[in-house]
Inverse folding.
């Protein structure tokens, strides 16, 4: 019988600040666990659904390590895991990794994309010059998760909600929504084919998704 519980993570015996950070959040899956908690507290199984391929025992271990590091807290009464201020402070790290990944070959957008991953990606891939001076409030419904994304003068703010209360709402899986946002096919065609769902002002929705481009903007 095999046991997939991993041995304790290797610690870097260095005074380098980067090494210190990696001692805390550098294990496999750790930053992706943080990604899944970035916008809202979640229960164990919901976190796991956002991380296909992770085993229950490995996720348990990562959550314990992140709690020990002061990145995650666990409300045992409600069964919810959430990020601390230190955990939420890792959003720029995840965004920087996304920007770096845009410069590297081999990205396969057909692989699984979680709702949280897409929301972070959009924060990175907003064309800020085109968005400057514009305001919009967009809704995204992924079924188990939903978000409101507010654009104000080139800046995005994303909030987890029970149900978006916005001028338009796009609905679908993370992968379908990513294709709708970053692809060249008009939303009206994707909606007509049932690839994504939509409610509200589709013209405004098309204008909004037109502000995102999946490529390096450096």
């Amino acid at each position: 019988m095999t046991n997939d519980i991993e041995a304790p993570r290797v610690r870097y015996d260095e005074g380098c600040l980067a090494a210190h950070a990696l001692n805390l959040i550098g294990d496999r899956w750790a930053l992706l666990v943080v990604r899944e908690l970035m916008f809202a507290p979640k229960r164990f199984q919901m976190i796991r659904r956002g991380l296909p391929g992770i085993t229950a025992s490995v996720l348990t271990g990562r959550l314990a390590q992140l709690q020990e590091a002061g990145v995650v807290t666990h409300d045992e009464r409600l069964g919810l895991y959430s990020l601390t201020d230190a955990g939420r402070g890792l959003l720029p790290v995840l965004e920087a990794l996304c920007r770096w990944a845009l410069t590297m070959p081999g990205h396969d957008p057909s692989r699984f994309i979680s709702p949280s991953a897409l929301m972070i990606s959009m924060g990175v891939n907003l064309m800020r010059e085109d968005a400057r001076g514009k305001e919009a409030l967009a809704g995204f419904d992924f079924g188990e998760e939903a978000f409101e994304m507010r654009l104000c003068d080139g800046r995005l703010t994303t909030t987890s909600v029970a149900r978006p209360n916005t001028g338009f709402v796009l609905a679908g899986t993370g992968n379908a929504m990513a294709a709708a946002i970053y692809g060249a096919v008009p939303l009206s065609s994707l909606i007509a084919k049932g690839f994504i769902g939509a409610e509200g002002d589709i013209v405004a929705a098309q204008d909004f998704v037109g502000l995102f481009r999946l490529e390096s903007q450096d």
User: Anything to note?
Assistant: The domain at 92-209 is CATH 3.30.1050.10 (Nonspecific Lipid-transfer Protein; Chain A). Residues 56-68 form the longest helix (13 residues). The longest strand covers residues 135-141. The mean pLDDT is 93.
